[in-house]
Sequence to fold (234 residues):
Amino acid sequence: MIPTLLLTRPEGRNDPFAGMVRAQWHGPLDVLASPLLEISFVAATPPKADALIFTSVNGVAAAGHLGLTGHPAWCVGDRTAEVARDAGFAAETAQGDAKALVAHIIAAQPTGRLAHIRGIHARGDVARTLNAAGLICEDVVAYDQLVGELTPEAKAVLAGQAPVVAPLFSPRTATILTRQGPFEAPLHIAVMSDAVRDAIEPLAVAELVVAESPDAASMAKAVLGVLSGLGRPA
Fold:
């Protein structure tokens, strides 16, 4: 049976990841997008900051919505930094998660005012940790992550018999998917971190793999490992 790669990130985030997987996987594979989060900008006052902090590409989009551009930007990972540069920011990547980003900024000891552009639902207490370390950081809530339902196509696949491979990048997405289960299909999950793994644990799955590093390249590698395993004889 042909496996389905089920992608649940917000609109605009699934095609690049699908492209990473397809570039390295040459076996049969169906790809289905069913976003479980919808990004919605909220009213926010543009900060008077010397540099910005982005813990996701959604923060970059929100900064643009606030009319911010050209600032130095501290970014959680390579993909976020790439998107920030394309949007006109002078971006630097921490190549990790929020904890690594905070450590990177504290080690650099930047002068001036920082602003963390984030969503309503966020992890890591970035601004509070930086302020406690003696830096000046404003917390700017600029978007919401609205809960979405699985599409009818996704529900049908999850009710079938063919294996479903689902990469999950955040604990919140994992929680949303778990609450919409249980599912009949053999579910093979690749998660970005231990925190995502903990959020998905109430859901019965056939396989659960944690990526080596909290970045898209490692997630693609984890998905490819799962697909390779599905192609081997039992």
Q: What stands out?
A: The first helix runs from residue 14 to 24. The chain has two domains: 4-36+148-230, 40-145. The chain has a mean pLDDT of 94. The chain is about 35% helix and 25% strand.
